[in-house]
Amino acid sequence: MVPKKVFFTKGVGVHKHELQSFELALRNAGIEKCNLVNVSSIVPPNCKILPQKKGIEQLKPGEITYCVMSRNKTNEPNRLIGTAIGVAIPREKNSYGYISEHHGFGDPVKKLGDYVEDLAATMLATTLGLDFDPDKAWDERKQEFKMSGKFVRTQSVAQTARGDKNGLWTTAIAAAVFLE
């Protein structure tokens, strides 16, 4: 199977049971009805990126669904958790792109999103033979990558949540979901 489409989604769930908080995060993201299989980080050539709503509409209950998922959880009151998925797509449609995932603590959405876009772009840049300085800020490198003419786009989806004040389990997810 080589996916023809991908969409990005995110969600948060809170519950007294850890597993149930994960289920609620999946529901919030719109992907709870699928049997999710985690895969690694390649966007196939010619894979179309769909808006979240259109992607969710194509899911069928019980289907085996491949995704790249970032997941984080806490039951520590007020602890900031975050997850993010980033993608870098090459200009050449017959080439493959990269997806990166990350989860952490204490980072705001923008920082998480920039970080995973940077990771995905760096992985793609190395396969394209582009030189880059890893010590430069992401915004500066992003401009260099785009100016090279080899990148179509980078994007990310990130989700943060604060641990429930009463110590309930809080789960955050971000996912790139593949479709045939």
General description of the model:
The protein has helices at 18-29, 52-57, 109-128, 138-147; strands at residues 5-15, 35-38, 42-43, 48-50, 64-74, 80-90, 97-105, 151-162, 169-179. It is of the alpha+beta class and 180 residues long. The protein has a single domain (5-179), classed as Pyruvoyl-Dependent Histidine Decarboxylase, subunit B (Pyruvoyl-Dependent Histidine Decarboxylase, Chain B), CATH 3.50.20. Strands 2-5-9-1-4 form a five-stranded mixed sheet. A four-stranded antiparallel sheet has the order 3-7-6-8, with helices on one face. A hairpin with a 6-residue loop joins strand 6 and strand 7 (97-105). Helix 3 runs parallel beside helix 4 (138-147). The chain is flat and about 50 Å long.
Note the topology:
Blueprint: E1 5-15, H1 18-29, E2 35-38, E3 42-43, E4 48-50, H2 52-57, E5 64-74, E6 80-90, E7 97-105, H3 109-128, H4 138-147, E8 151-162, E9 169-179
Parallel strand pairs: 1-4, 2-5
Antiparallel strand pairs: 1-9, 3-7, 5-9, 6-7, 6-8
Helix pairs in contact: 3-4
